[in-house]
Amino acid sequence: MQFSSADWAAIRLTLELASLTTFLLILFGTPIAWWLARSDSRIKPLMVSLVALPLVLPPSVIGFYLLVAMGPNGPLGWLNQTIGLPKFPFTFAGLVIASCLYSMPFVIQPLQNAFEAIDERMFEAAATLRASPLDRFFSIAVPLAKPGFLTAAVLGFAHTVGEFGVVLMIGGNIPDKTRVVSVQIYDYVEALEYGPAHHLAALMLIFSFVVLYLLYTFNPTRKKRG
Amino acid sequence: MKHRSILISALALLSLHISLASADETQVAVAANFAAPVQKIAADFEKQTGHKAIIVTGATGKFYSQIVNGAPFDILLAADDETPAKLEKENQAVAGSRFTYAIGKLVLWSAKPGVVDSKGEVLSKGNFEHLSVANPKLAPYGQAAVETLKALNLYDKLSPKFVTGENIAQTHQFVATGNAELGFVAYSQVLKDGKIEGSAWLVPEKLYSPIRQDAALLNKGKDNKTAAAFLSYLKSQAAKDVILNYGYSL
């Protein structure tokens, strides 16, 4: 397979975007998933629904709302202007925010499932040994939920790599900034340049399959329930 | 039993859809920039003849791929003259059926009043962050925008500020939402009842090669009388008046 320098730039950008998005989602998604798994709050169904929303919304809806919200007349754009931050649309930072929203359920749901599967009595036992809540979380929950973290990270990463519609709508297709692999492929196909499109598309296909294959080989869901 | 009744109703729904495509109809694939005028023309056409033109709008490049792969369109109203010519050369369109139905005009537009001056000098001042341009590889209006900037010797200076729309509709969207301060769009997109909202500079036609938009009768529509009637209606004075009103020349 041969790739042009523009292709390599798109590949590098895609990997950067997916890595940063996965990192941020694990960082902020873990406390949310923990709360969702342990809470009996009345607003829990509301929160679960909000987290699952990007699963069912078409990317055109998410992209459109983000474009309007981040615009100079939207709430996010207004906030940015007021505190002197740069604008979000057509920037890498904007893509990261959009990707976090778009891939959120793929990270939070596996984490929540993993936390829910942990036997409550373990925490009670640890509490009688005077382990603090934070200690209980890091010494019991995190090691036991390891398969959940792996699934969350892999799915979050892979789903961000496979993102297209949202990036297309708020990215503006700028080389080195917002032109990711999926957009580059779309451009090739639209311009009827099927050769380079095939190379990049095959790369995506192989990548996606290998990632899922490794995930299901080394992290079978059955083991988790033990 | 429940599954069987679901299957039967699904099949019934499917057959209903198949039978809906009757002989008095024609399916027309239309370039995104011509969406508004063609709706008006199709409505007038139906009123006058009783025949129905079903309009599908989208990007010309995408239509090309779909037509080559057997899409059920009788007519293509393209955003350029190359795609219909290519289709005819590849025996996908009826030979001799091509004609120019509209000539597009390029405009530099901002959603805000006072941003774009009447001579386009805002371009050389360059006091803006983003300039929205349709992808020149895919869209004729993008190509025209690049030609204009090169003619003004501003291309190298301004290309780092480009944000690229996949088609002219998305390019317009970037400007309309205010995310790009200004952009090169189709005059027909910003002209509403003879007026322009925001501010605009109608680019002199000597700065870019004419955006000829050609129509072609596709092989699928060769024996469709409604398709032939629609094409001749498109050449009528009534249709031409609509086209001129929407900011095209002829």
Per-chain topology:
The complex is a heterodimer of chains A (226) and B (250).
Chain A: H1 5-38, H2 44-56, H3 59-70, H4 75-82, H5 92-116, H6 120-128, H7 133-144, H8 146-161, H9 165-171, H10 181-190, H11 194-218, H12 221-225
Helix pairs in contact in A: 1-5, 1-8, 2-5, 3-9, 5-8, 5-9, 8-11, 10-11
Chain B: H1 2-20, E1 25-31, H2 35-49, E2 52-58, H3 60-68, E3 75-77, H4 82-89, E4 99-104, E5 106-110, H5 122-125, E6 131-134, H6 140-151, H7 155-158, E7 162-165, H8 168-176, E8 182-186, H9 187-190, E9 191-192, E10 195-196, E11 199-202, E12 211-217, H10 225-234, H11 237-245
Parallel strand pairs in B: 1-2, 1-3, 6-7, 6-8
Antiparallel strand pairs in B: 3-12, 4-12, 5-8, 5-11, 9-10
Describe the structure in brief.
By secondary structure, chain A is mostly helical. Chain A has helices spanning 5-38, 44-56, 59-70, 75-82, 92-116, 120-128, 133-144, 146-161, 165-171, 181-190, 194-218, 221-225.
Based on the model shown, name its key terms.
heterodimer, A: 226 residues, mainly alpha, globular, B: 250 residues, alpha/beta, five-stranded mixed beta sheet, 11 helices, 12 strands
Describe the structure.
The complex is a heterodimer of chains A (226) and B (250). Chain A has 226 residues and is mainly α. Chain A has helices at 5-38, 44-56, 59-70, 75-82, 92-116, 120-128, 133-144, 146-161, 165-171, 181-190, 194-218, 221-225. Chain A is built from 12 helices and no strands. In chain A, helix 1 (5-38) packs parallel to helix 5 (92-116), helix 2 (44-56) crosses helix 5 (92-116) and helix 10 (181-190) runs antiparallel to helix 11. Chain B is globular and about 65 Å long. Chain B is an alpha/beta fold and 250 residues long. Chain B has a 5-stranded mixed β-sheet, with helices on both faces. Chains A and B meet through helix 3 and helix 10 of A and helix 3, strand 7 and helix 8 of B.
